[in-house]
Amino acid sequence: MGKETNGVLARTSDDEVIKKQEIQEAQANMWKFVFGFTEMAVIKCAIELGIADFLEENNNNEEVISLNQLSNALGCCSSSLYRILRFLINRGIFKETSTKNGEIGYVQTPLSRLLIKEGGNSMAAFLLFESSPVMLAPWHNLTARISSKDNGRPAFDAAHGKDVWKYAEADPGHSNLLNSAMACDARVAVSAIINDCPEIFKGVNTMVDVGGGDGTTLRLLIESFPWINGINYDLPHVASVAPHANGVVHVGGDMFNYVPKADVAFLMWVLHDWGDEECIQILTKCREAIPKDKGKVIILEAIIGEKEENIIRGSNNEKLKDVGLMLDMVMMAHTSNGKERTSKEWAYVLNAAGFSRHTITHINAVQSVIQAYPS
Ligand SMILES: C[S@@+](CC[C@H](N)C(=O)[O-])C[C@H]1O[C@@H](n2cnc3c(N)ncnc32)[C@H](O)[C@@H]1O
């Protein structure tokens, strides 16, 4: 009996310890969410100051850049710059080390290299776009948006009086920010396509990139698959300022009305901006643009995993899965009806638009590759 009592007492106290640990862990996690914005804000500051650019230009001979050198070069208050760097270093962005003279110094890390303003893998433009006041304002309207049975006024419209595309048309500076951000992702996604599924472009003579932005995607694809003739198709205000690229013709137009004819219609991060009915309209226009016998549509989009799905995408699988869920929230804040879709939801819009067969290939990117064939 005594033993049993002891047993109960011991169990109770173990339970209490576990409960206390769980509460402490929950509190520590909640602090991360409370101050989650600090990461975006401080990384934005680092990009604007050009910390990664200066280190990259001057770290050449593996020379460590001292805090003094850095603050003088960037025209910054040394003690504030030290605190900014301490925060970032704690997250693997930059590394603190000592100079030859024993002063505090810094070097780049794989993460900090992504903050260089220009460059192959840079994600700086994406962060500057998402952290711009224009893109942050709609988040304050998220609750109002969903606090109505049939979805309230889109959060972006409520903040700015028009949708994201009309806003970009009226504000060339913002349009440029948007196009640069998309080009940033395009460089990452296209390199994954080229590595993981180059065979999908075999025998493709003409390809139209619908909603292709500034043409970065087509330019990079044609560099690797030079037999493709590319049509970069986007709204007139985007196509008219897109830079020249060999093998690419820029055409302005509205994909809801018309899509230029080609062997393949390519859509990356376009359909997730729209609701199902709009996707069916766009895909129908794409189906009409390609040959019925040998044409196809290539779609690059995130696929939200369903419980029964076992998506294998390599070591980044879990992290990329969460990016898909974050993007779904971004669609809710920034577009009128856009959303990320599960494979079943993709099957629905594709079938409704007249594509009887499709395949899904997972690549080492946020997006997967869907190839759809007309009936
Ligand atoms: C999220 S961006 C994707 C850009 C590019 N595909 C990429 O992934 O880098 C969506 C693109 O769709 C374009 N777009 C929006 N509405 C359009 C329409 N009605 N007709 C053609 N393009 C449109 C936008 O201008 C923008 O460039």
UniProtKB/TrEMBL annotation:
Domain spans labelled O-methyltransferase C-terminal: 139-356
Pfam families listed in its UniProt record: Dimerisation, Methyltransf_2
Active site: H272 (proton acceptor)
Keywords of this entry: Methyltransferase, S-adenosyl-L-methionine, Transferase
UniProt record similarity statement: Belongs to the class I-like SAM-binding methyltransferase superfamily. Cation-independent O-methyltransferase family. COMT subfamily.
Alphabetized PANTHER family for the sequence: O-METHYLTRANSFERASE (PTHR11746)
Protein name: (RS)-norcoclaurine 6-O-methyltransferase-like
Native species: Capsicum annuum
Record lineage: Eukaryota, Viridiplantae, Streptophyta, Embryophyta, Tracheophyta
